[in-house]
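Why does residue order matter? Because the sequence determines the fold. Keep that principle in mind as you read this record.
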Amino acid sequence: MTNHIVLFEPLMPANTGNIARTCAGTDTVLDLIEPLGFSIDDKHLKRAGLDYWDKVQIKYHQNLPAFLKTVKNPQNLFLVSKFANQDYTDPDYSDPNEDYYLLFGKETTGLPEPFMRRNPEKAIRIPQDDAHIRALNLSNTCAIVIYEVLRQQNFNDLERTHRYPHDKLK
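Structure:
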């Protein structure tokens, strides 16, 4: 089983760097759908990802149709949008023989509306108070959703405890 965080035309290098760091810590593939709103050499992108870039499997896709051709099972593609009707906790992500794809829209406009209208059953959302904010931060949203996927997968082989380097917690 492989989990994928997929970013549609991301605009902000710091968000993408933070998401890459989450991908490194969760053994999640990062799929980037072009065009990107920044250069992959951007100093903010590198700073946000710190020294984890070599630990992230990144796949680049020329456009949305090119990415969709790589999805092994379209039933396991989830469109993360505040306009969805089902919560991100509703789907079952636990099948060990399946790959799961979490597709997030660009920071300013989300996913293309025609695409969303054709695929409403794939859309999931994080509940939020729309009266107070337009949307949650993209990197926070990615972290919330991927950790629900991992929770349902019993966190795969991720470490469940952290080793304190100075034995002070013994």
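DSSP finds five helices and seven strands in the chain.
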